[in-house]
Amino acid sequence: MSTQHPYRVLLFYKYVHIDNPEEFAAQHLEWCKQNGLRGRVLVAKEGINGTVSGTVEQTEAYQKELTRDPRFADVEFKIDPVDHHVFRKMFVRARKEIVTWRLEDDVDPSQTTGRHLSPQEWREALQQEDVIIIDGRNDYEYDIGHFKGALRPEVKTTKEFPDWVRKNLAEHKDKKILMYCTGGIRCEKFSGFMLQEGFADVNQLHGGIIKYSKDEEVQGDLFDGKCYVFDERISVPINRREDRVIGTCHHCGKAEDRYVNCANPFCHLQHICCEECETKFRRSCSDECREHPANRYDLDNEILRKREEEYRLEKEAGLKVLDDQTTQHQA
Questions:
Q1: CB–CB of 206/118 below 8 Å?
Q2: pTM of the predicted model, to two decimals?
Q3: Residue 284 exposed, middle or buried by CB count within 10 Å (0-12, 13-18, 19+)
Q4: Would you state the pLDDT for residue 86?
Q5: Partner residues linked to 140 by β-bridges
Q6: Are the C-beta atoms of residues 263 and 295 closer than 8 Å to each other?
Q7: Angle at Cα 73 formed by Cα 72 and Cα 75, nearest 5°?
């Protein structure tokens, strides 16, 4: 049987004007459902931001469908091979912004944004002296993986960044700024905001951590830990030269990089937890949550067992399609 991965995940965005995001979202959702895609796509007047999963054939069809629209002809897709869907459903929603910044003086990335560095340029810049490296993600994303020397943001949402910058970096506007995020989209406005604030030398990693990992020259070098992703995988490996674990278990403190959601539905705190402590604490963040009468640990485990069976069947079906296609091609 084929050793290929029968499914793929597409990560993409584009800042471009969309006249009627509500109408576009409704039509886009219908197309995605009819063609078997799952994932989350946000649409606004300022552009599109999405992650979708599907079979190789489905994702190829999606790429062709999106890029045949002249507005998205040059969209750059970051592609991850996987064994099955990483989303349960398909959502396409109209929003005011494709990333929630709520800036007082909004930024148009097509007009104002930082200098984009290639993976090779980024690695070289990381090793320069007297630079400030900013992780443009939330604190919990930083905690399981980040570039060496990067500042840990004291934020839990993107819209908290402006205040964090003003409180912590206002005296360093003459420094060379290096910023990065998962796929590049958050840095587009973040770097523009930094320029508006008077920072003179603002640079961002083009394509984000995901593209950096896939570059055959850098291979994720100088990134420690894993990259947090907003799908059922939760995290993905980045450094193909040295895979280090930098997170620590919420309960016992040992090295760990797996996130779980607290089984108490009234808490649902996402926390780093080793497999032993997940069982011991019934996937709960505290004794109170472990003993809560609404704790879903047993119920969720049953759901997970059923989901793993679905994933097994998806993988088998997908591999059969790939093998059939290979056989037809060879014939």
A1: yes
A2: 0.92
A3: buried
A4: 97
A5: none
A6: yes
A7: 65
- Residue of 181, 249, 262, 273 marked catalytic: 181
Asked whether 273 and 249 are in contact (CB, 8 A), the reply is yes
CB 261 within 8 A of CB 234: no
How many whole angstroms separate alpha carbon 235 and alpha carbon 227? 5
45-77 burial, b at 16+ Cβ within 10 Å, e below that, comes to: bbbbbbbbbbbbbbbebbbeebbeeeebeebeb
Task: Report the Cα 61 to chain-centroid distance in Å.
Answer: 22
Active site residue 262: no
The backbone region for 258, taken as left when phi is positive above 0, alpha when psi lies in -120 to 50, beta otherwise, is: beta
Measured CA to CA, the distance from residue 193 to residue 112 in angstroms comes to 8
Q: Is the pLDDT confidence value at 8 over 50?
A: yes
CATH 3.40.250.10 residue ranges for the chain: 115-214
Asked whether the beta carbons of 263 and 281 are under 8 A apart, the reply is no
Cβ contact 42:76 at 8 Å = no
The tokens describing 212, both together, are: 């950096």
Q: Amino acid letter at 228? A: Y
CATH 3.30.70.100 fits 7-94, yes or no: yes
Do residues 278 and 263 lie in contact, with contact meaning Cβ atoms separated by under 8 Å? Answer: no
pLDDT tens-place string over residues 24-43: 999 999 999 999 999 999 99
CATH topology of domain 115-214: Oxidized Rhodanese; domain 1 (3.40.250)
Residues 22, 41: Cα–Cα separation, whole Å: 12
Residue range(s) of every CATH 3.30.70.100 domain in the chain: 7-94
